[in-house]
Every structure is written in C-alpha cells, then in structure tokens.
Amino acid sequence: MLWGLLIVGIVIVLGLGMFYMYLQFRAVLMNGRKPKDFPPKTRRHKSCIAAIPVAVLVLLCVIRPYFWVVPVLHLLVGWTILRVIVEIVEKVLTKRDQKKNLIEESEPTEGKDKETRAPRRHIPLWIPCVLALAMTIVYMSIAYYLAMHVCQTNYQVATNKDVSDLRIALIADSHVGVCFDGDGFAIHLETIQAQNPDLLVICGDFVDDDSIREDMLAACEALGKFQSTYGVFYVPGNHDRGYGNSRDFTYDELTASLEQNGVTVLEDEIVPIGEDYYLVGRKDRSMKRMPIEKLISPLDPSRYTIVLNHQPNDYDAEADAGCDLVLSGHTHGGQLIPIGVMGELIGANDATYGKERRKNTTFIITSGIADWAIPYKSGTISEYCIIDISNEET
C-alpha cells in the first residue's frame, strides 16, 4: 500500500513537473512574451518545438524509469529553484534602478513627475534553463560514479577481551543486477580476496527484486571460490525474499545455491569462529525472528560476539544484550540526499552510516557495495569494509 502511494505520488509530481518544464521551454522560445502576442501559426510552431524535449524525457522515463526518473526530478527541482532566484534577482535589480533614478532626479518642475519609474529588469529565460541542465548533468554524473565505483573502507576495533586478531571483510546490498551482474560481482570479490580476510560476511540484500537467475547463480559460484580461514557467511535482507513474484527464482533457491557453494546461511543462528569469537546471524526485521537477548543468552560472555543484522534498527536491544560488534547495511549510506537524514528522523533506522559506540557495543553500517534499483549515490559511496579486531593491549 505504501509503495503504491509512493509510486502514484512520483507519477503525479513528474506529470506536473513535465508540464511546468514544457511551459518553461515555450517561454524560452517566446523570449518571455505571451503566446497571444504571436500569430496562431507561429504560436503552434513554437509550442510543438517546446514539447519535443519534454516528450523525449517522458519516453526515457518510461523505457528506463529507475535510470531517468531521478535525474529528471533533480532537473525539475534545480530549474524551479533557479527560476525563483532569477525572479528575486530581477526584483532586486529593478528596485535598485528605481532608487538610483530617484537619487539622480533634479528638483521637480511644474508638470514633471516626482518619480521616474525604471523599467522592470529581465534576465534572459535561457540562463536558468542552461544552468539547471548543466548542474543536473554534473551532479548526476558524480552520483553515478559514486554508485558504480567501489571503495575500500577500513575500520579498527579494539576490545579488552582476550582474543586473537581477526580480519573481517564486510559487504552488503550488492543487489546483483543493478550496478553489476554476476560476473562483475566476481571481479569485486577478487579485489576483496587480495586483503586476505579471515572471513567474509554478507549483511543482506545480496540480490534485488529484479535480479535474474543467471546472475544470482554466477554470484553464488563466485562466493564458492572465495578463500578465507573461516569461510563465507550470509544473513538475509528485505530484498532477498523479494516483493511479489517478479523474479525467476525464489528465496529458497537463493539460499540453496549459496549453501551449495559453501556459504553458511544464518537465520537466527550462531557459529563459533575459532576459539575466541561467536558469529550471530539474525533474520531480517521483515521476518519473524528471535529477540537478540534470547538469541545470545546461551553464549559464553568471555568470548567476543559479532552480530550480523541487515537493518540497523535494534541498537538499544543489541547494546543491552551485551553484543560486542554489530554489522549492518540496508541504508546505502543514505543513497541520495536527504534520504539518510529522513530515515533517522522517522525512526526507520537508528543510524545511517559509519562506526559508533553505544554502551559496550560497537556498531558499523556499510553504505553497500552497490545500490537498490537506482544507480546513483550522493553524499556517500559504494564500498566494502575491512574490519580488524584486536585486543586493545596489543
């Protein structure tokens, strides 16, 4: 229901925005003059030309909505803001000219007005149009690069528990098929492999609602070739189960393929890592799952507890339960400004990105190695994380 309302809202905003854009293109072609100032034939001609770029944008949004809707919305917002700025500048310049005329006036004589009004200043309408288009191209190009280019982010975590050093490679939100296919995922794994992690953990949203079986199988096979001391571990995300029946594979087929390639699937389950660590894999918040305090209650508190939880929204309970380290994804680091801030304001997430400490628990959220649906990121990056845990005395 919520997604349906969101889609309807986006369509309405786009429709109104496209009409506004058409009016602006027509105003540029008519140089700010009213349509009735032109002969009917000229008016129709200019109106048809103004409709062409709008029609092209509509067609692109229909063919590839995930790719084009976001840039078009940014163009609409940018153009609207610039038009408002232009209006303000025009009024300021006009008032300044009027004030200047009053100051320069000689003493009024009989039959002469005391005030000479300056004509309204007009900034060419093509200026905000060109500026908005240029700003959108630059901004969205940067956002596309940030989504498609994967960085390495390093974290150091110290503990007073008597543990051996452990290196964790963390990935989340690969959404296979959006920013890369199965073969592209394999290439990223080779880069991660070069960091020699002791284990690789996948914090959910391994696939997307639009992922195809071929890419899913290729990505799982790549995980089967990954070499580490303790193996590869996976917990589900909300998109892994899928919404509706749009995919050509099921969640059960996904987990079966992961397990066939040596990946340990954790759904409210715990595995020991060496002699010093526990790895706790939680089901996603969208699934029926155990409370964290009940899940880890049987564990030896002297060992270091690492929790994998796709969505970062159970911080208080995880800290109260005595978890040592909690790893999450889901937020994409905010993905697009100002989504990250909104997620925290409405209580959907306890945090959006990075490392923080609450009580005796360290929380780390990755912005994800890819993106959901939209291949753009602003104000954040695509990444995998290398986390080194060590005793604080070493």
Shape: elongated
Q: What is the H level of CATH, i.e. the homologous superfamily of the largest domain?
A: Metallo-dependent phosphatases
**Number of discrete helical segments:** 11
Named CATH topology of the largest domain: Purple Acid Phosphatase, chain A, domain 2
Strand order of the largest sheet: 1-12-2-3-4-5
CATH class of the largest domain: Alpha Beta
Rg (C-alpha, Å): 28 Å
Distance between the termini: 53 Å
Provide the CATH architecture of the largest domain.
4-Layer Sandwich
Biggest sheet layout: 6 strands, mixed
Strand content: 15-25%
Considering DSSP H and I runs of 4 or more, what fraction of the residues is helical?
Answer: 40-55%
Secondary structure tally: strands? 12
Number of domains: 2
Q: Please identify the structural class as seen in this structure.
A: alpha/beta
Low-pLDDT residue intervals, each spanning 5 or more residues: none
Tell me what the structure shows.
This protein is of the alpha/beta class. It has two domains: 2-102 and 121-144, no CATH class; 152-391, Metallo-dependent phosphatases (Purple Acid Phosphatase, chain A, domain 2). It is built from eleven helices and twelve strands. A six-stranded mixed sheet has the order 1-12-2-3-4-5. It has a six-stranded mixed sheet with strand order 6-7-8-9-11-10. The longest helix has 40 residues, at 65-104.
Keywords for this structure?
394 residues; alpha/beta; 2 domains; six-stranded mixed β-sheet; 12 strands
